[in-house]
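Margin note from the TA: students keep mixing up input and output lines. Inputs are the sequences; the output is the structure of the whole complex. Example:
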Amino acid sequence: MGQAEVLPDNESDRLRAVRRYDVLDTPPDGAFERITRMAARLFDVPIAIVSIVDSERIWFKSHYGLDVDEIGREPGLCASAILQDEPWLISDARHDPRALSNPLVAGEFGLQFYAGVPLHTHDGYNLGTLCVIDRQPRQVSDGEAATLTDLAGVVMDELELRLSARRSIAMESELRRRAEQVASTLQESLIPPGLPAVDGVDLVARYHVAHADRVGGDFYDVVAGPGTTGLCIGDVCGKGTSAAALAGSARWTLHTLLAEGVDPARALSQLNSVVATAQENRSYLTAAAARLRRQGTAVEIEVACGGHPSPVVVHPDARVSTLRAAGPIVGWFPDSQYTATSARLDPGDVVLLFTDGLLEAISHHDSDSAEQLKHLLSPVAGKEIEVIADHLDGLLGSDRQDDVAFLLARIT
Amino acid sequence: MTAAAELRVTRDAGRLTVHVRGELDFAYEDQLVTVVTEALDEDRSAPLILDLTGLQFIDSSGLRAVLRCQQLAQAQLRLRVVQGPVTRLFDIAGVTDRFEYV
């Protein structure tokens, strides 16, 4: 039996269908093992096989009673069985002209009975067969042929199920990849690409996203001007693209105002009225803005807060003080006013601006997390700001729900 | 970390009260606004009381929910609060004096 005789008309499309199910050379698998075991028992035969007809070979997804993974396509009875959609039956191969010359029949194997049902895809291709084999002649009743056809249907259902599961996993990971891409693009508008070099002030910032595919609303920025340095940090209520879009606008607005020399309290007032008017109470944000001005060896800091946790100062002698500056949330009430608090910073003092996520990460139920933070900072007082930043990073748990941003500035 | 909030509406001496218990966060923001909208549809004259005394936790989205309720109810809204998570958040957010209380 030459190979040319056993090729279906649609062979190249059929092979594409075989590839689509991605089943060739996959490891043995319980579902198919059960089906061949059941087929052998129902027919009372020693061998049952789920075969897939590949271009050059017939590969066995499951082979009950036969210790072979694949055979060449040429002598394969399965290759013949997939040429038709009906069960392919050989009751006594020694007297069947279709099988006489087949090496499995004529040779040592001594096959005498073969019943194979094609594995028929919904779009009309025969991938392979479910077949039962015996070394003795055997008759197949109509009922048995129907049973074998039903079992072949179960094999096909199993293959379809796996294909659709694989597709939904692939689709899901593609969706996640796109969401992460959008998130990271948006994220880039929330923080500066790097921090400017500022004379007399060392700066470090950290930004931790809780969910890679879900952009948050935390932002910060540093504005270096002649003799003054502007700092800002904020947190838009909510998550997702709309929160990030508002956070990006808020960051640029504050950046511009601080760069123009507007003081922190007026900067927040203006941001408040811009956001409250522009977006009509869809959301709000909290923010802290600060301005550092060199006064001899010391630095004067002015801080204004809008619904935001007050910044703290870590002194080299391990004291930790709060720059208490209270003010209403930004962008909700058009008439909100902000006032600044001033303090004197000496060389070695470190100012920490942070978002609420930091407090949330360290908080225990019912404790004052702002006080808690001060206790946690005391041991790293006087250390390099990178060390302080690492220390804060270490306080963040892995199951954070909220994003965390913080900004450290040390007076040198 | 989404724990449940429980929303319940009661009527006492003609006044509607929306009780919020548990944890008010993003997951319940829209639900609270819906409940308050429905309560307002029922009665636009008597004060509507938002009882937050049963809240163990409230976050920024929870505050936004209360602010949205205020926008809908205007002067009709009264809050009932006790010292705790709600008043702490209101203080930090600088919104304590923006509400009427009972």
